[in-house]
Structures
1.
Amino acid sequence: MKNLNQQFQSAGLFTLAIRWVIGWTYFSAFWRRLILDNKLIPEEAGYIGEKFNHFLPNALGIKPLIEHLVLNPEQLQIAMVAFTIVEAIVGLFMILGLYTRLMSVGVFFLAMGILLGSGWIGTTCLDEWQIGVLGIASGFALFLTGSGYYSIDNFLLNKYPHLHQSNIFKWLGSGHLPKLISKKTILFGSIFIFSLTLFTNQYFHGGVFGTLHNKSVRPKLELSNLVKKSSEITFEVYRVEGADVYGSFLIGIQLLDDADRILEEWSGKDLAKFPLENISNHYVAKIKPGKHSLIIPLGAKADITLHTDKVESVKTIKLIDISGLEWQLTVN
């Protein structure tokens, strides 16, 4: 028994750097959101709820949950505060080595949330996907090893020797695991995590076979739900791709006839002064006029209303991005 305890203490020591780094990864989220800068206030720039909204277009499996929250701002704020508190506790306790195995379960599920929600985001590398899969693997490894020397768990085991016999402390804190954790269990767990890694790499990025793609490189807008009235046209704009830290800057909207002739258009200057009452935003990430254009953040969805006396002649609506990208919606 003594040798077994020493083996687990050594294993916990070998993962010390992983425990500290993964702990700071999550605790720092709390630190930068609340201590360095308050990003939990919905009315202020940098609100974490808007960042959460960015995950929505291509999330895997949890899209309905994300959409429910961004459609209900009060619930979203509560969720963001709770999420930040959980990250703070998990991160701090992991750094200290307190209830290490319980915290490793927290790491596992926090990383799973990152992977499923934002694993598709990353402008130059597969940033969020890498953070997610490495967090899941680290959480699994830390659950197996617990924390050895240089941890509060180890201090408690030395001060209260009877904890070595406590299965509850072994499962929640550190120490040698029961024989239930066998080589096969570890193998199957590792196969599951590796399979999840390959699946999500392929699903989000085509990283296993086929054509590699990155949905964070350039903006993409989806246009739909066009409604024509006597003197106005309303349609829905939804930004589903592009960098999460950089908006789509719309510098032109054109109404075209069946010969692609411009019937009416709004330039960048016009869109910079576009009336707010003509924009009906659905989520917390909002489409709004900027200094030189109409800004469309990632994940934003809104109904846009254009007033024109040429409604009956309009056959196509064209949107023009500052990058030169164009999107069209044909009027049936």
2.
Amino acid sequence: MTTATVWLLVLLCAATTFVTKGIGPAATGSRELPAPAVRGVALLGAALLSALVVTNALADGDRLHVGADTAGVAVAGLLLWRRVHLLVAVVAAAVVTAGLRSLGVD
């Protein structure tokens, strides 16, 4: 893929984002959204973030791959589920990932 193609894709993604973000306010005007819609929009951020985390933890380029980084994410998720401080979970994930990679797990 050439540099010009990459920049064209970046510009198309930016334009799509601007249009998509502008449709909501243009369509609703100054009206308030119904309560179910507000609850749905509030949940979108968590859903998108979790989708990104799962995709990055389980994918290696164009194939599914479970490795050291997946184990690190799993450890962090488990610690955060157990209400451990965020910094501790991040450090534990880094230690597990680095330890597994030093043992040769990719």
3.
Amino acid sequence: MGGQRGERRRKRGADFGTDGNLFVATDGGGAASSNDANAVIALDRQTLQPKDWFSPGKTAFVASPVAFQYKGKHLIVAANADGRLYVLDAASLGGADHRTPLSASAPYSTPADFAHGALATAENADGSRWIFAAAGPLRADAAFPSANGAVAAGAIAAYKMVDENGAPTLQPAWISRDMTSPTPPAIVNGVVFAIASGEHKSADAPLVAAQHVQRSKPAVLYALDAATGKELWSSGTAIGSFVRGIGPSAGDGQVYVVTYDGTVYAFGIPLEH
């Protein structure tokens, strides 16, 4: 890979690919001259040695990649600060020049407004593959065929994987209702559980902890139809604090939400039998 010694790259979360390798996404870490800056990197699962990489250029990756199989291919999707989602072939992340993805979405999010770890994926009952991303304010030219109201603060964006000109491509599907600082969603039984975290975020001068808490507001958990983004249910005023960077988790018929004040909330969900 030829990474420069002494430079520190911030690694977003890692994901095991369906081909057995480990994939990480990085930002520039203060310099963007080496191969492991602003890149999605494939690592050998036993030695953790770099095997391949893809970089779109000078903009950083801002969320953990997700890995899945699609029509016999091992694919990776990663979100970049340029507001795009990149679809990569795990067998050759960026082609011969390490710069060529299988496809890339049109920009839809303002730079750096993806939540960390903001991608989720699910396979529908009909075999279709979907990608869900949490993002801040949308670009004015973002085009989705289905919307669920005006978006000012943030939203969950849904894409369906389709074949276009022989390449796996992310087709925009829907945008959720407006959400304040949404976190990565969880998908259960065809329902997208997403949290409007309520966390105050600003590009202004850093706030002390007390100011940060004061300017944040209680989180709300939403259940959204995975095919349309339509709101099915919300927790309303049940949650008493904001959520800081942690998406919902699900298991045993419950969806769990952990708030900044250390409280764990459990909400029951219907199970298929």
4.
Amino acid sequence: MHANTLMPSPIDKLFRDLYGYLPAKDGEAYELLAAAACKLLAPSCPVFHDSRVRGELSKSMYFLDVHTAKGGSSAAGEAKDYTADKRKVGRGDFQKLGGALGDLPVAKGTFFSATGFTKPALQYAAAAATIVGKPIEPIHLRPSEEADHEGRLESIRVQIHIEQPSVAFGVDLTDEGRAKLKAMGRGSFKHAVDRLYRADGNVMKSMEELIPPECWKSMYAGPPEGSVPLSGAFVKVDEELIGIRGLTYQVTSNVTTHEVVIQPNGEAKLFIKSVDGSIDKLLTDTDLRKIRFTDSGEAVLA
């Protein structure tokens, strides 16, 4: 079940970069990555590496590179890293797995390859359900490449525009109001006004209440402006009531923009895709490092 190599393969290098060590057994790094990928794809499903499973008929012991142990989803997985000699998984590899499937208490077989599959291997996999009574699913599992990112939504950029209305007011003073303002030593009216008063000093209305509702609605199409004639209305200057005939207004919109970028959790390191297309995913270093293996070989999310 292991590829004999004299030097670390690209898979070994990836495993060491992710976890900081390299398993002693040749090919084990790829098996562990395959188990980690299965756990990330199905977090609630028990997944084991190098699992010992007894045959139902022969009662002999099998050693499974990857064992997914959950009812109808149970699977015996074989993992082959042939990156060092750059050869594809062949039919013989599939036949070996197929020969064990009939005796194993699993629903199907899965075959992980870092280099792809030969045509005869894929033909055997397609007919496995008829040949051995259980299907075999070929799965590509390898370090991710630049081309794997094409056509994927890898980040979402959201721009949030917040529009807040503000109003600038102008007042048209009565003759009496203008004279009173002059007597106070004020040559012109330059005061912020937020409400109108009656002659008795009680509040008549807030300034915003005088603006027609449709002006607030139309401010997004352009800053509306207008005038409102008034009778018996006053504004306050230094607590003195100053008479006005009416007011002018202009509604403007203050716009602030915030940008939020939603990105994947980490950098894509591993590409996994089933031949039938039901699985097609990039796994990140952050997610892969969440996987730990217990003493029994079970893959768990840390």
